[in-house]
Amino acid sequence: MVQFIGIGRDFLTSAMTAPFLEREEEFGLAMRWKYHRDEKALHGLTRSHMRLVIARAVKFRHYGLPLSDLIQEGHVGLLEAAARFEPEREIRFSTYASWWIRASMQDYILRNWSIVRGGTSSAQKALFFNLRRLRSQLARGQENEGSVVTFDKIAKALGVSASDVEQMDARMGRPDVSLNAPISDQDDLMPSERIEFLIDDKPLADETVGQAIDGDRRIDWLREALSHLSERERRILKERRLTEETATLEALGACLGISKERVRQIETRAIEKLKGALIERHVAEAMI
User: What is the pTM of this model?
Assistant: First the structure.
């Protein structure tokens, strides 16, 4: 039995006893609201369809959210449908409003069901709201099939990957847990929290500072060593070794007016000179 906690009895009575509208009466109310902004017509149109909102909210009650909130969100969708409804198309308002009511409730569920936002794409949204139903259908008469087979079939039916189905199933099967929640329920003086057991792959602060200092020192060494090269040697070495887009021997040879073999020879010589300058610098610092 559904319990309508937080919902006024008068509201429920008014919604469930509101008379159904005939097509002509519905058309007249919709025209008065659309072209004359008659609020009484809007009230009559929406009041007669609040039972649609309540029925849809009951179907979504298994997501653990307050039924009163679902009804409120559905009412927002109902008002949105009334604002966009075009009675000239000769479509019943209930058919048009049902989509807006469902969409409004689904958006509310996705925003509030978990602290981790999910179902942002249309495919993920369809997976979220159809996973349980499809899994239940596939489970009937297929007790011998494992989870992998079931996930593959659901993925094929909804146009998503099997890994997406598996991840969504895991999320829906476990509640949110705070990282600050204690590991043990015992009254310890210093209870350990879950966040203390998370592994951080980033280097420690002192390691980061040390790497930055070492990096600056290496840059200074390289800059000083490059000063021992000629202008042409520096240019070839930078174009060939110190840029993201490495220049070819042919391209450098064309720019400098020499052959590519000559460019290769100069590059080799520049590297040897650079190594010698760096070694000399280290030897000199080690003797200090």
Answer: 0.54
